[in-house]
Amino acid sequence: MTVPTHNLSDADLAAALAETAGTLLLEVRSSGLLGDKALGKAGDQTANQFLVHALRHLRGEDGLLSEESADTKERLDKSRVWIIDPVDGTREYGENRTDWAVHIAMTIDGRPEVGAVALPGLGLVLRSDRPTLLPPMAGVPRMVVSRTRPAKEAVEIAQQIGAELIPMGSAGAKAMAIVRGEAEIYLHTGGQYEWDSCAPAAVALAHGLHVSRVDGSPLVYNQSDTYMPDLLICRQEWAREVLDRVAHLVNSEA
């Protein structure tokens, strides 16, 4: 029976798109025909073509921002805007790792209202409309950081609070590690773009996690400049201490 896709809720559509794009990406990778860099490029383009076509067909009145498509300013006049990252963690995808993701988010007036983050290598799709109970926290806090270029601020604050550093690939994988109870803190100060954090932010917020810029202000999306300098996603129990330590670190360097 054909699924009436036009009748899907935004949350169901986001999850279906994330899961389907993840399946496509796994099939492209399993072909074994391409090396790391070529595989990453092919994956990005394949997933993006599918996602953009689907959203234009199913949500044509909404705005759209994708990492892999040329940006247009028409989205700025829209209340509802989809923000997608076809492959978050292209390097990890090309290296046959599992710490990469597919991000599908829908914002309303700049707020991340709906999100789905697929972790295809793990066979998981985490959704903003289906939050689960957070697992118990570890006795020693765990902080996820970039496996290739961990931010010095994150490393310094981890030392201050005695946190264990967990190197990991994509931003989506890091944020979902907090949701899944694999870590307590994701602090990033190395700069990202809206598509790197929008879907993870929506999922994290739905699970009751703290989500903000490192000055404590909310993440705001669908801006003319899509660059986002920093973020903090963490368990509520650690938010105040991490924010205070970041502020002290910034003030001491001023």
From TrEMBL:
Cofactor annotation: Mg(2+)
Keywords: Magnesium, Metal-binding
GO terms (BP aspect): 3'-phosphoadenosine 5'-phosphosulfate metabolic process; sulfate assimilation
Pfam families for this protein: Inositol_P
RNA-binding among keywords: no
Highest taxon, organism lineage: Bacteria
Binding-site list for Mg(2+): 67, 85, 88, 196
PANTHER family (UniProt xref): 3'(2'),5'-BISPHOSPHATE NUCLEOTIDASE 1 (PTHR43028:SF5)
Protein name: 3'(2'),5'-bisphosphate nucleotidase CysQ
